[in-house]
Design a protein that fits this description.
The structure holds 2 protein chains of 2 kinds. By secondary structure, chain A is mainly α. Chain A has helices at about 10-15, 20-40, 45-60, 70-90, 130, 135-145, 150-160, 165-175, 175-200. In chain A, helix 2 (about 20-40) packs antiparallel against helix 7. In chain B, about 70% of the residues lie in helices and about 0% in strands. Classes of the chains: A mainly alpha, B mainly alpha.
Amino acid sequence: MTEPLNDADELALLKGGDQAAFARLVKAHHRALLALARPIVGESEAVEVVQTAWIKAHAALKDFEGRAALRSWLSRIVINEARMMLRQRKREVFLEDLQPEGAEPFADRFRGNGHWGAPPVNWHADSPDSLLTREELADCLSALLDSLPSNQRALLELRDSDGLPFDEVCNMLGISASNARVLLHRARARLFALVDHFEETGEC
Amino acid sequence: MLKCRDVPAEAEALLDGELSLGRRMALRLHLFMCGNCRRYLRQLRQLLGAVPHMHGDASDEEVDKVLSHLHDHSH
């Protein structure tokens, strides 16, 4: 995995137009940006949206002030491009149904008295990085991300993957804060339940 | 009193920086007494720390494609 690129030296190279540094930037963030565009514009348009976003980012990098993390800055460019594409194609549906549906994902893990009935198992991983070093688990997680409803996916990408402020995410997606909290909780709970199950059984 | 059932929502609010002092104290008190919930919070923190890296690096082919589009665009 590539090291984070937003340290001062790398940023100076990027702002000075260094092509190798730009290639490293693309390598580190391209897949995450595709994952962000996909739930909003769909699989087939996501590549085009992100490609255009890279062209805009390349032109704007010299003015990047470093007030936000690079990933957050790039995500905003992708979201703008995605919106522009939807507008041009006169597509109105931004995301599928935004109302949270179904049961609370952890409901069956608690007893009637509010205590854990099925508490989380003890995970082997002792850091975020070591969670992802096991290939099978990384594959399980990526399959789950693909299967989440698009509204949950978009929220998880913007908030937890790209680190944008909660209020900004709600504005971008045109969703109320209370709905966003429920949807984000569902997405996180499903990820948690998957890792927990994997730690216990070695399977997705 | 906070119940274990309330902890997932409170833990997320804590990690999102949205927990008031009072709710933070109530959560801390519960965690002090409850090993299951301490484990839940520790592992949730790990999981959310991993999310930004979950997509991995792009392949060299993907990077080349982006760069060649960029090159075409600027000429």
